[in-house]
From TrEMBL:
One of its GO terms (biological process) is methylation. The chain crosses the membrane at residues 6-30. This is Methyltransferase. It catalyses: 24-methylidenelophenol + S-adenosyl-L-methionine = (Z)-24-ethylidenelophenol + S-adenosyl-L-homocysteine + H(+). The keyword Lipid metabolism applies. Belongs to the class I-like SAM-binding methyltransferase superfamily. Erg6/SMT family. The lineage of its organism: Eukaryota, Viridiplantae, Streptophyta, Embryophyta, Tracheophyta. It comes from Panicum miliaceum (Proso millet).
Length: 367
């Protein structure tokens, strides 16, 4: 073969390989976001690395972050930065619902996710015509499942404007934009009038609040008297031992890689809810047997993680993805190991469920 023919063949094969690697291998687990679309939210390309460094220095010591008032105030801004950095990677590698679910025998992850979300509808007794609030809505995976299953109208709030745009686009595509609304705002001080919702829920979102009282207090305010609120909380369980260095390492690894200003204990949740005026109707760790492990999805994807980090590195080298994406991906890979360990040892659960009611005749001081 002539040298020119060989060079052409090599070039065509090379381009073909890159195409296959990026577009086929790098396809989203749940179709919709491709590796080549990894942007890093509203952060401009040149700022991604800096923003990651700032995030990392803030959340490196999560407990200290939560305990001083000055830094607790900065938490929502850093959580916003975190979601700029991770939203596209989450969508690409996990889907449009940013939470865990117990595995279901013989059912796909997508189905298990939907069942976990529809449980909220049953707990709230949500009906057509109801107006529900989704506290920390992400890109709206749960919102769409809940609106579709219940016939209710849902208003979601998220601190991250990039997520607002993603969620609105998904809502339009799903034909649910007339019943699903998305607002950019802080759930610690919500832009909604008192008593304006029939029900509310939060799925793995309130763990970002430095003080749970603040977000529960806001939900209490915007609920109508008699309205129900369901929350899936990230907490440490009674098996956690603060004197065990392995436990501490695992929990800090979860906090650092997930923008958490200190995880709360399982037994704190109900008393905080009562403190702001709620009645506690039900409390259950949805991860406990007979539920099957929620962390198997994280574990079983180990080969996929290696493939993904390779894709991310190649995309960064080709300047398709901004510099800094590999570091963010690495941080997520590490936190996945800690989450898995937290699940396997039982010292952590991401689905401690509480069902709360604002009393029908709420007292003036609790309103
Ligand atoms: C509730 C929260 C988020 C929970 C989960 C949706 C995410 C927690 C850890 C994330 C991931 C870890 C590893 C990533 C992997 C390295 C990458 O290749 C593809 C995406 C991951 C699987 C990613 C997906 C989302 C998580 C499982 C928190 C923040 C309160
Ligand atoms: C892990 S995601 C869960 C999203 C969604 N509930 C789901 O299950 O797909 C956490 C969400 O909480 C939101 N959030 C965190 N802190 C917030 C705050 N102070 N105000 C509003 N939203 C916040 C994030 O922007 C993100 O959308």
């Amino acid at each position: 073969m002539e040298a020119a023919t060989m060079a052409w063949t090599a070039a065509v094969v090379g381009v073909g390989l890159v195409y296959w690697f990026v577009w086929v291998m790098g396809a989203a687990e749940v179709k919709g976001k491709r590796a080549v679309d990894l942007k890093m939210g509203s952060i401009t390309r040149d700022k991604v690395q800096d923003k990651y460094t700032q995030y990392w220095s803030f959340f490196r010591r999560p407990k200290e972050t939560a305990t001083t008032a000055a830094s607790a105030e900065k938490v929502p801004d850093f959580v916003d930065t975190f979601y700029n950095l991770v939203t596209d990677i989450y969508e690409w590698g996990w889907g449009q619902s940013f939470h865990f679910s117990p595995s279901l025998p013989g059912r796909s992850h997508r189905e298990a996710t939907r069942v976990h979300e529809e449980r909220v509808v049953d707990l709230l007794g949500a009906k057509p015509g109801h107006r529900l609030l989704d506290v920390g809505c992400g890109v709206g995976g749960p919102m769409r499942a809940i609106a579709a299953h219940s016939g209710s109208n849902v208003v979601g709030i998220t601190i991250n404007d990039y997520q607002v745009n993603r969620a609105r686009a998904h809502n339009r595509k799903a034909g649910l934009d007339s019943r699903c609304e998305v607002v950019c705002g802080n759930f610690l001080s919500m832009p909604f009038p008192d008593a304006s919702f029939d029900g509310a829920y939060s799925i793995e979102a309130t763990c970002h609040a430095p003080k749970l009282q603040d977000v529960y207090g806001e939900v209490f305010r915007v609920l109508k008297p008699g309205g129900l609120y369901v929350s899936y909380e990230w907490v440490t369980t009674s098996l956690y031992r603060a004197e065990d260095p392995d436990h501490v390492d695992c929990i800090q690894g979860i906090e650092r890689g997930d923008a958490l200003p200190g995880l709360r204990r399982q037994d704190e949740i109900a008393s905080i809810a009562k403190e702001v005026g709620f009645e506690v109707l039900k409390e259950q760790d949805l991860a406990l047997p007979p539920a099957l492990p929620w962390w198997t999805r994280l574990k079983m994807g180990r080969i996929a993680y290696w493939r993904n980090s390779l894709v991310v590195r190649v995309l960064t080298m080709l300047r398709i993805a901004p510099k800094g994406v590999s570091e963010v991906h690495e941080m997520l890979f590490e936190t996945a190991q800690h989450l898995t360990k937290g699940g396997e040892t039982g010292i952590f659960t991401p689905m401690h469920m509480v069902l709360l009611r604002k009393p029908a005749a709420a007292t003036e001081e609790a309103k």
